[in-house]
D-galactarolactone cycloisomerase
Amino acid sequence: MEIVDLETIPVVHTLPNGDGVGDARGFGHTHGTTLLRLETDTGVVGWGEAFAPGPIAEATIEELFHDEVVGMDPFDVESLAVQSYTDPYHFGGSVFVQCAVSAIDIACWDIIGKTVDQPVYKLLGGTTRSSLTPYASTMYFREDGRSIEEPIREAVQAGFTAAKIKIGSGVEADIERVRVAREILGDDADLMVDINGNYRPDQAVRTVNAIEEYDITWVEEPVPPENLTGYRELKERVNVPIAAGEAHFGRFAFKRLIDDRLVDIVQPNLARCGGFSEARAIAKLATTENVGVRPHIWNSGVGLAAAIQFAASVSDYPHTRHVPEPMMVEFDQSDNPLRHEILVDPFDPSDGSLDVPQEPGLGITVDEAAIEKYRADR
């Protein structure tokens, strides 16, 4: 079997003026990513995603990987991640190279699963789960002045038993947002907060210590991702678990977070970290050192499917049935048709549980006609 066709497909959804959503750093008006379609000489099609702008992802794949991938046996996929660090030399540390590798890797694993008639999570080994706990990623900062209570109430009404909210605009405002979220979610729900790297260490310490009483499951990116000394300082001064990883890529960046005990939870994004092959390596590094793993997801339906397959495979170590801790996956609640319209059967988290697809590969059927609606290159 060999790959005979490769197509990169940039897609984008734009929000109307005045409807931007975002975090403490600012508002965003677009959801954009790059899909990858691979086809083999046997007619099997695999889908992947590079969480990067279309023109950059397309140019990177065409310049560095096209000739390598066309003619490649998809079962040789794990060698691609290794090669990305050595050939082309010095480029493997680039985020856009790893995004390109992610798309190819995910698509190859999709092909492998379809070929052997198994979902990817079973091929990855580790723990196998039939369901996951989705958490609503919500309470974004909004241009339209929507009340902070409304999105949390909607999440509860939809059946979510866990949520992650945006904070990072000052201690008092952070306390109020967390207080409201906890009051509406109830005492038993998992509540996470995301600062998106908007604070210096001293600012983050004040906020995290102030909201600790609200039983926070983790605080995400309290300082910028490159501020490793800031993460070290926080670990010494706060008691709430720290999570990071959405802006990191490749096993070596994650190894630093893990080896230096800078975080309690790593969050690889499957469409940025290097795909399944690198995510599996990252998970093994993390569980070996007893660090938690929870994938970051702000992708299309393809990237969401990849994250679900990966999450279903992550080891429970060191937990047993006596320490129940659900494997949670992020479910973005912003308006993003790239998440659901491009899938024939979209994921449904509405009952507080997310079924892991048992169909081969990623377990999804991509609606190629729907993709055409959101192509950014037409």
Observations:
- The CA atoms of residues 62 and 267 lie 28 Å apart.
- The two ends are 32 Å apart (CA to CA).
